[in-house]
From TrEMBL:
GO terms for cellular component: cytoplasm. Residues 1-123 form the PIF1/LRR1 pleckstrin homology domain. It comes from the Eukaryota. It comes from Pinctada imbricata. This is PIF1/LRR1 pleckstrin homology domain-containing protein. Keywords: Leucine-rich repeat, Nucleus, Repeat.
Length: 423
């Protein structure tokens, strides 16, 4: 019976002298077993043994009548505390597999009461080998194809993985089983697409796929719950993206978005919904106008250098006659307003695309064809205090493409466009 975990050893008599300092969060192997009789110890005496990288031979603690208490409230999180009578120490266990820890504690409890243990493989309490007491590898960087692991698996304990300059055409499926992975960097490869399976990485916070050959970012990926809730950094620089999917605005935890050096002509019309976004760079694209909701962002840094922003953007609104909206438009406005889910299994594809094409009026309402389009020049300084100019002449005003959804919004805009803008 043996588990791998982190153990802090706390001396209860003089906590200041506790071994904790030396072994803080130290990786250890705990075993329950018995040793053949020697040194006057009765045969069959059960011990709890703790081995660490510094102490491979291990320290043994008597089990029978020596366990004062087991604190197992957080066993589901892989944590527990074992309080010993002699010596007066607490073993603070963490980072254990919750199921293994549960079994381990139950065997320990039984052994402490001196009961017979059936069906349990006990350890012989031999010294631990180096591998089992080494801290599990949490970071791996591969920058050369010859270092790519072909025969052995990636360590399951990895939290950060970088595989760059390996001419990867697709992502190795073994990577998707790395449940602890938080940062995945696959920059400088030749990836042409990203599979949906990336969303299996439930703890992924940062995805870096810059310098590849991506022509699209999968919309379906943005709707996967753990991806949506956890991803805080997305780096898509130096690819071949022509558009970003609307659904990218569903990435509610995204703090940093980098899309420099692509072929983007616009940014998603609902980008203003990304309330946590603080760092946005989209330099060296082909953006001509920005969507109105862009003005709702409040960013720490913003870089839109070297795009193709239109020059003359102050377009006068001409009088138009408003026709009643079509039935399709009325339905579509309601579907988007109430966030009703839709997909291609339930609706015809062209209706789905129609719903995707929703424009947002400055009043916040969704509209479709029955709307008025206009562009107005806006200062990027209202969005970010540290905005960089969009060209070498120091320009920071850019054209914003907007829509007005109804005669009411249209009239309010006509009366005072700037007051309305700042609503
Ligand atoms: Zn409106």
């Amino acid at each position: 019976m043996r588990i791998s975990c982190s153990v802090d050893l706390i001396n209860r008599i003089s906590p200041s002298l506790s071994v904790k300092k030396q072994s803080k969060g130290g990786h250890a192997q705990l075993s329950i077993g018995k040793k053949p009789s020697h040194d006057g110890i009765k045969e069959g005496t059960m011990f709890l043994m703790m081995c660490t990288a510094k102490d491979k031979n291990g320290t043994k603690y008597l089990i029978k009548d020596n366990i004062m208490q087991i604190f197992g409230k957080f066993v589901q999180e892989g944590k527990a505390t074992v309080r010993l009578k002699d010596p007066e120490v607490d073993l603070l266990i963490s980072k254990a597999d919750s199921l293994q820890l549960k079994n381990f504690l139950s065997v320990l409890k039984t052994a402490a009461q001196g009961k017979v243990l059936d069906n349990v493989t006990l350890s012989t309490l031999a010294p631990a080998n180096s591998k089992s007491v080494e801290k599990p590898k949490s970071k791996m960087t591969i920058k050369d194809r010859k270092d790519y692991p072909l025969r052995e698996n990636f360590p399951q304990s990895l939290e950060k993985l970088q595989v760059s300059c390996c001419r990867l055409k697709r992502i190795d499926t073994r990577i998707f089983s790395l449940r602890k992975l938080e940062v995945l960097n696959l920059s400088e490869n030749v990836l042409e697409s990203l599979p949906e399976d990336i969303s299996k990485l439930g703890n992924l916070r940062e995805l870096i796929v810059s310098n590849n050959l991506l022509s699209a970012f999968p919309a379906s990926l943005c709707l996967k719950e753990n991806f949506r809730q956890n991803l805080s950094l997305l780096d898509l620089c130096h690819n071949c993206l022509e558009t970003l999917p609307l659904q990218i605005c569903e990435l509610e935890s995204l703090v940093s978005l980098k899309v420099d050096h692509n072929k983007l002509q616009t940014l998603p019309p609902t980008i203003g919904r990304m309330k946590k976004l603080q760092f946005l760079s989209a330099s060296n694209n082909c953006i001509r106008t920005l969507p109105a909701s862009f003005m709702q962002l409040r960013l720490e840094t913003l870089d839109l250098f070297a795009n193709e922003f239109l020059d003359d953007s102050n377009q006068q609104l001409t009088d138009i006659s408003w026709n009643p909206p079509s039935l399709v438009e009325c339905c579509a406005r309601m579907i988007r307003k109430h966030k009703l889910p839709y997909d291609e299994e339930e609706l015809h594809t062209h209706l789905c695309r129609y719903l995707d094409s929703a424009r947002i009026c400055w009043c916040g309402a969704f509209c479709f064809e029955n709307s008025v389009k206009y562009t107005a020049s806006m200062s990027l300084k209202t969005i970010s205090p540290t905005v960089s100019a969009v060209d070498t002449n120091g320009r920071t005003d850019i054209p914003v493409l907007s829509f007005l959804c109804s005669p009411q919004c249209y009239n309010r805009f006509k009366q005072n466009p700037y007051a309305y803008w700042r609503k």
